[in-house]
């Protein structure tokens, strides 16, 4: 393993942080590294909003779960698909902005390629990180707290800080169960791979002293009821086109 | 700079590759590194289809542009949001799968966090890479070529191989024009940052002997007409819910 692959394997989501701040110089270094990720036709359709206001941080921590780490970590960021800068350019050119699913999709993809570089850069500097999907619990409230204009579409949060815990790594599906050749496997093959993973997952939970269960039991529960309805209406209200 | 941040800064999209193959052991190493990226509630909503069939590779190269590098690179992958494994689990549990924008969004985000780790792992092993958004030119045809079942939603391709060129790096927007505090800047501030970037971008084109133009001219053109319409219908036909 080379140093980068080693660093990647050391990743754990960190949920407890010390009181140490994250110096602005480190944030800029991680930004510049993040921005080196590929971006479709150089459109750079994302932005990052660092939340430093204590009251806003607490409100976001509350709406995200509550998840107190959003308030307590060294630095908290909201990663957004940013269609606004393109809207402003098109408007200045006297044209009409043409909203498309393609634009929103590229915004989401390129923001996430950026975010993973951003995260790894922080981890390479010794910080821990945790993505916060919980901000999608109430995007309209988040939007009001940050006063986001049309075209700025928040996707998820990111906690960064000095780790104050050292959790074990949760096992992933086997690589062979995620990588296929020329087509997708049969349902029987997929379910057999899931059964093998369930055994690994149950052992992981048992070894940690947690209530033993299976991955597929968690998945069956999670995807059999509606999750965060209203997201589409919210993004549409920001000028995104998801159809 | 540490070795990971240095590697990140060495990234260039590579469009010309030697004939060298990419050994399967390297592909598995990059997969395992990719899978270490964070994934929301461990749902792992993505998969990778490596295309090794020569005729399919050529058809995908054609529909993507044409972009001959899709055929000529050492290894070509299609990165997909994978809702199917969750659908199968929910079905086996006797429940109804509840499609949601949240599920598709998490599929797109987590696939892309994976993809950036996957890409960096390849780059750390000495390979060059290029994301291929062009597969979205004709997803229904790609779908038939790879015989993808319901729930498997291709997002973009990825070329990997030994570089046979050494391009310069395209300048990015200034980090300060992408990172904001507590809110988004005013339109005047955004447009002023765009003007500054236009100067840097024009100089970059001029230095390379390319036709001088500005970033904002390219953006104004790109976003004032419809792009890849029909994407939403395609993803809906795969069982995704984008509303």
CATH topology of the largest domain in chain A: NADH Oxidase
Strand order of the largest sheet of chain A: 1-2-4-3
Largest sheet of chain A: 4 strands, antiparallel
Summed up, the domain count of chain A is 2
- The CATH superfamily of the largest domain in chain A bears the name NADH Oxidase
CATH class of the largest domain in chain A: Alpha Beta
**What is the count of helical runs of chain A?**
10
Q: What is the share of helical residues of chain A? A: 40-55%
Relative strand content of chain A: 5-15%
From the structure provided, what is the oligomeric state, counting identical versus distinct chains? homodimer
Write structural notes for this entry:
The structure is a homodimer of 243-residue chains. In chain A, helix 2 (24-35) crosses helix 6 (101-124) and helix 3 packs antiparallel against helix 7 (139-146). Chain A has ten helices and five strands; from the N terminus they run ααβααβααβαββααα. With 243 residues, chain A is of the alpha+beta class. Chain A is 45% helix and 13% strand. Chain A has two domains: 3-167, NADH Oxidase, CATH 3.40.109; 175-220. In chain A, strands 1-2-4-3 form a four-stranded antiparallel beta sheet. Chains A and B meet through helix 1, helix 2, strand 1, helix 5 and helix 6 of A and helix 1, helix 2, strand 1, helix 5 and helix 6 of B.
């Amino acid at each position: 393993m080379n140093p980068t692959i080693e660093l990647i394997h050391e990743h754990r989501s960190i949920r407890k942080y010390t009181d140490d701040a994250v110096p602005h110089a480190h944030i800029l270094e991680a930004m510049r590294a993040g921005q080196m990720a590929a971006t479709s036709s150089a459109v750079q359709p994302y932005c990052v909003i660092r939340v430093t206001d204590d009251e806003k941080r607490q409100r976001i921590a509350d709406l995200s779960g509550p998840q107190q780490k959003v308030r307590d970590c060294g630095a908290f960021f909201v990663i957004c698909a940013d269609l606004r800068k393109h809207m402003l350019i098109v408007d200045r050119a006297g044209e009409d902005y043409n909203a498309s699913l393609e634009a929103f999709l590229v915004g989401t993809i390129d923001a996430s390629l950026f975010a993973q570089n951003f995260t790894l850069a922080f981890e390479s500097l010794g910080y821990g990180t945790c993505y916060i999907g919980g901000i999608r619990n109430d995007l309209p409230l988040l939007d009001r707290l940050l006063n986001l204009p049309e075209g700025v579409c928040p996707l998820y949060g990111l906690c960064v800080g000095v780790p104050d815990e050292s959790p074990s790594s949760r096992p992933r599906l086997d690589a062979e169960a995620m990588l296929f050749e020329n087509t997708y496997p049969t349902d029987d093959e997929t379910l057999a791979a899931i059964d093998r993973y369930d055994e690994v997952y149950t052992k992981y939970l048992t070894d940690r002293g947690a209530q033993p269960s299976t991955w597929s039991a968690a998945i069956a529960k999670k995807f059999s009821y509606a999750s965060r309805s209203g997201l589409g209406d919210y993004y549409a209200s920001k000028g995104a086109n998801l159809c």
